[in-house]
Design goal:
Length: 290
């Protein structure tokens, strides 16, 4: 039973909340009334969960020695010696194969997008995570591929403004993640993640400020766009902007004053302010566009 639990931890199911970006098209494309599209998107979500877990396992294998030196990552099943490397490789291959099969059952386009996601993340794990700034853009691209899988992948036209907003959000989260790692690891940062020696707190704070502004501005412009008003039949989405602003500012506060920001999935659940404001934004948005 313990082995099953260790394999489940190896999959990092708490990170699956990131795959919720797949549902963006259903919500903002008014496609929730179509059962076939809903089914396709749910399958695409499940496929991303399985493949992303396979990618996490691969990354844990590559980073095994560094993780053993990390104050928190040393508790992961591979780093702690609770799961062997050979078992992890087999498990990752099984998850990847199941995920790709599910993606194909959703649509061939979803499969292509998921393959691109997997190849990009393999390249990231093996090499590209050591390239400054590009590492953040690859993380952001992974989120954008999730959005595209839930839109283009199933035949829902994506909004260009929404894609821009998604890019800004994911870049913001990427830069805050690096900033949190620098805070947590202090002087020993380069031994855990080589790319951190190319980042500085001042540089990251500037990039966080730029992307935070980009999130607020792009989302605000999206809510006021004529096509948005026509598609959703309401001009009142602008009133959801304060929720977005509060969420962004709260996240920056958590980063600097509570040493968080390294894991959005955990931060969303653990911080009541963030949890409530995201929930309030979602409820308000659904009520306005439904």
């Amino acid at each position: 039973m313990n082995k099953v639990f260790d394999l489940l931890r190896l999959m990092r199911p708490h990170q699956w909340v990131k795959n919720a970006f797949v549902f963006t098209g259903l919500l903002f494309g008014h496609a929730w009334h179509d059962p076939n599209l809903v089914t396709q998107v749910i399958i695409a979500f499940a496929a991303f969960c399985l493949v992303s877990s396979a990618v996490y396992i691969l990354n844990d294998i590559v980073d095994l020695e560094q993780d053993r030196l990390h104050p928190k990552k040393c508790l992961r099943p591979l780093a702690a010696g609770q799961v062997g490397i050979s078992a992890a490789v087999i498990f990752a291959a099984l998850l990847g194969a199941m995920g790709l099969a599910l993606a194909y059952s959703a649509s061939p386009k979803v499969l292509i997008i998921l393959v691109a996601y997997a190849l990009m993340n393999i390249a990231y794990s093996l090499r590209l995570k050591h390239v400054v700034i590009l590492d953040i853009f690859i993380i952001a691209t992974g989120f954008m591929l999730r959005i595209l899988a839930g839109t283009l992948g199933v035949g829902i036209p994506p909004s260009q403004w929404l894609l821009l907003c998604g890019l800004m959000v994911t870049l913001f989260l990427g830069f805050t993640k690096r900033r949190a790692e620098i805070i947590a690891l202090a002087e020993d940062k380069s031994s855990h993640r080589k790319v951190l020696e190319h980042y500085s707190p001042v540089l990251l704070d500037k990039m966080i400020g730029i992307t935070a502004s980009g999130v607020i501005m792009s989302y605000s412009l999206y809510t006021m766009n004529a096509d948005t008003i026509r598609i959703h039949g309401t001009a009142y989405l602008i009133y959801t902007v304060p929720f977005v602003m509060y969420g962004v500012f709260r996240y920056i506060y958590l980063l600097h004053h509570q040493s968080r920001g390294g894991d959005p999935s955990h931060d969303l659940v653990r911080d009541p302010h963030l949890f409530i404001v995201v929930g309030a934004w979602l409820v308000a948005t659904i009520l306005l566009i439904a």
